[in-house]
Amino acid sequence: MIVSASPAALSRIEQGATRVVINEDLPPTAGFVGNTDIDFEGALMKRSLRQAAGERSIDFVDATETATALMGDSIATNSFMLGYAFQKGYVPLSLEAIERAIELNGAGVEMNKRALAWGRLAAHNPSEVSKAVSPMMRAAKPDLEPKDSFAQRIEFLTAYQNASYAKRYQDIVARIATAESGKAPGSKGLKDAVISNLFKLMAYKDEYEVARLYTAPEFRQKLERQFDGDYSLKVHLAPPMLSSIDPNTGLPRKREFGPWIFKAFSILAKLKSLRGTAFDVFGYTQERKTERKLIEDYAALLDEIAGSLAPENHGMAVQLARIPEQIRGFGHIKEKNIKRAKDNEAQLLASFRNPSKLASAAE
Questions:
Q1: What are the pLDDT digits (tens) for 162-202?
Q2: Which long-range contacts (CB under 8 A, 24 or more apart) does 145-152 make?
Q3: Run of H or E including 55
Q4: Quick one: pLDDT at residue 221?
Q5: For the segment 87-100, what is each residue's pLDDT rounded down to a tens digit?
Q6: 198 vs 149: CA distance, rounded Å
Q7: Nearest alpha carbon to residue 323 among 298, 305, 306, 299
Q8: 88, 50 in Cβ contact below 8 A?
Q9: Where are the domains of the chain?
Q10: 345, 300 in Cβ contact below 8 A?
Q11: Is pLDDT at 332 greater than 80 in this prediction?
């Protein structure tokens, strides 16, 4: 949709002549890599495309999500879209010719034929496809209702580490909730920001967590829903202390690990109680030290917020509580984002501590 809504593409669409089938999925672009907060403005793009093609000549299809749910691989999206367009009468070829081309290509022949057929059905009877897809999507993406999210996060952190770890999370959130209701009555947003961002920091994805997630029953169940027949799993990792450094990038090289690694994962997952202790061999790396320090720094920040919260600095407190949202990625990317987040935090904290100065500047 991003390419189709570009000026160059729109200039080639003619009402009454052009027929348009658009995949609604918005994949990350180069711009998104540089700015993860970018707004693709999907509604605006749809409006532009409708104006260019005409309402009766355009179809928006949730192709990537549908094809992935049905076939287990997003690469099936291409054949799904082709099947949809063919069934609509937009492709001046015979079905036999398209299927023969898939056979001659020789890559994923059966998958591509099935995806083609599903795309045709989606164009002819979308409700039937929705019936087949809906259970798969619900299983792959369980709902996280706002009213349950706090409880679910407590449950997650208990499985991540232990009940004591989850209790600390719960206690910090409770203190912030009490401060918000008592010192800034009627104000909202601070507690919710802490629920989300404290969890984000406390559930950092280290070696033990990667092992736990890969060996969780839910992971295997999801694979079985997506793939049929005989298949093998491979994982690409850059284990600390075992990975060589790429001389060109200065970053650790990833290596391929076969199915045997899942047995190692099952052992490692059981050692999560070592996390943060003197026996945590992974905990001595700079990245793990930084992640633990981020939690302590954030807890200290929340202590200050709870102690100094007032109606006039509540908005600034919410912005401070949301600082961890800026910390994304892994390795060197995460390091850059941490530095940027800390710089922003310092500026916001100065305003939080002196809201009257901020008000004067605004006047």
A1: 999 999 999 999 999 999 999 999 999 999 999 999 999 99
A2: 149/195, 149/196, 150/195
A3: none
A4: 82
A5: 999 999 999 999 99
A6: 13
A7: 298
A8: no
A9: 7-140, 146-205+284-362, 207-274
A10: no
A11: no
Find all residues with CB under 8 Å of 50, minimum gap 6, and list them.
Answer: 58
DSSP E strand stretches across 148-298:
235-237, 255-257
E strand or H helix at 58, and its extent?
strand 58-61
Which band of pLDDT confidence, cut at 50, 70 and 90, is reported for residue 35?
A: low
Q: Return the pLDDT at 243.
A: 75
- 3-state helix, strand and coil shares in percent for the chain, rounded to the nearest 5: 65, 5, 30
Closest to 349 in 3D by CA, of 283, 284, 300, 294 = 300
Q: Which of 327, 69, 361 is nearest to 204 (CA)?
A: 327
Tokens matching residue 125 = 């009877």
Give the per-residue pLDDT at 361.
46
Strands 58-61 and 20-23: parallel
DSSP 257: E
Give CA–CA dist 18/90, Å, rounded. 9
For residue 127, what are its two tokens? Answer: 């409700």
DSSP state letters, 184-221: STT--SHHHHHHHHHHHHHT---HHHHHHHHHSHHHHH
Q: Are 24 and 61 in contact (CB under 8 A)?
A: yes
Instruction: Give φ, ψ of 114 to 5 degrees.
Output: -65, -40
2: amino acid identity, one letter:
I
**pLDDT at residue 34, as a whole number:** 52
CB 86 within 8 A of CB 95: yes
**pTM here?**
0.65
Extract the tokens encoding 325. 């949202």
